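User: ok so my PI wants both of these folded by tonight, can you help

Assistant: No problem, let's get them done. Here's the first:
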Amino acid sequence: MLTMIGAGPGDIRYLTLEAAEEIRRAPSLLAFPRVAESIRDLRRDVEAVTSVDEMLARIREAGDTDVAVLVSGDALFFGFAKTLQARGIRLDRILPGISSVQYAFSKLQIPWEGARFLSFHGRDADLDAVAGSGPVAILLDRKYSAERLSFELYARGVRGKMTAISRASYPDERIVRASIGDAMAVDADLALAVIEIEVDGRR
């Protein structure tokens, strides 16, 4: 049986109880390095896998034996579950996790039922999709940083506030809040932005 576990935004404190129990009891546990390191206090023998191709190979090698794959955030929010499904790999169970976006909205105390969600992480940036009302949350990476997003939105005439969060939930978490167009120095590898766009002078 193949189980995918959402590990939350980063810090082990944000694991669900169900996820923690499954991490402890899974016969075999695979994770990418950052996630593997974050849960070693729960499971010392977690196998750190360094690439998507290696992860796919290990899953296929497991065959019908029980294996759990631990992924950051929630497996179905721009997550690895979609990668497996696209390759015809069937998941028997998915345990939900707290996404970095959920964490960010709670941290910033911004209601998010009307929010829109985008990912520029390893994807082409669609700046046209940012325009509109309501807050927008965007997952970022080193290629498309919060600072680049801030500058490019400003150049397109977008105004408002932007909050960038790097290493969400970790002890060295950093939050920078500024106007769109300002410089934003945050860790580019583990970052997201929440944008509150001004429409007719209102956000």
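One down. Here's the second:
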Amino acid sequence: MASVAPTRAATFPPRRRRRVSFQDLTVMTRQLASLVGGGLTLMQAIDALIEHTENERLAIALRQVREELRGGGTFAEALAKHPRLFSPLYVSIV
């Protein structure tokens, strides 16, 4: 008879509350473009980014952007409410 030892369930690594780096923003922007270009709506793409980002600060900002969009705001307006993450240049380009 073989013994069965309990194993830990697979878990995702905890999100880090570090500042949002240029690389984090670049990766998020490329992923957003790919998701929307692949046919997802902006809301679906943001939901996917929230679920998969490892940076908690970026996830929090994206949740707030999503809520602003649900309230009828534009994407640019929602991003502009986070000037520490999204510069005016970034907002105008996206």
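Confidence is low (pLDDT under 50) at residues 9-13. The chain has one domain: 22-93. Good luck tonight!
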